[in-house]
Amino acid sequence: MDIFIFAHIIIGVLIGMAVEPVGRFALQGADAAPQWTLSKIRRAVVAVMMWGFIISSATFGFEYILYAVLEIAVGVFISYYLVRK
């Protein structure tokens, strides 16, 4: 069970790290975001991954929804501080 929880955390943080540039593209435009966010399909894939992760976490119980949202938020903050200038 420990491996499952560790994998769940890693996946959530990685998805959060992909969500942050997409949000930056939506708020500040193409000049502020990485090149891969220019494609609408790639942004849609990231959104589907995020919502799919949250919904699939919901199948394990309510506490896993909260964990999934927290993991995605941690990934967003990590990505934000890594690319901050």
Give the low-pLDDT segments: none
- What does the overall shape look like? elongated
Percent of sequence in beta strands? under 5%
SSE order in H/E notation?
Answer: HHH
Termini gap: 39 Å
Count up the domains.
1
Which class of secondary structure composition applies to the elements?
A: mainly alpha
| Helix amount | over 70%
Total helix count?
3
The biggest beta sheet reads: none
The radius of gyration computed from the alpha-carbon positions, rounded to a whole number of angstroms, is 14 Å
Integer average pLDDT: 84
Total count of strands: 0
Brief digest:
80% of the residues lie in helices and 0% in strands. It has 85 residues and is mainly alpha-helical. It has one domain.
How does this structure look, described?
The protein is an all-alpha fold. It has one domain. Helices cover about 80% and strands about 0% of the residues. The chain has three helices and no strands. It has helices spanning about 1-30, 40-60, 60-85. Helix 1 crosses helix 3 (about 60-85) and helix 2 (about 40-60) packs antiparallel against helix 3. The longest helix is centred in the N-terminal third of the chain and has 27 residues, at about 1-30. It is elongated. The mean pLDDT is about 85.
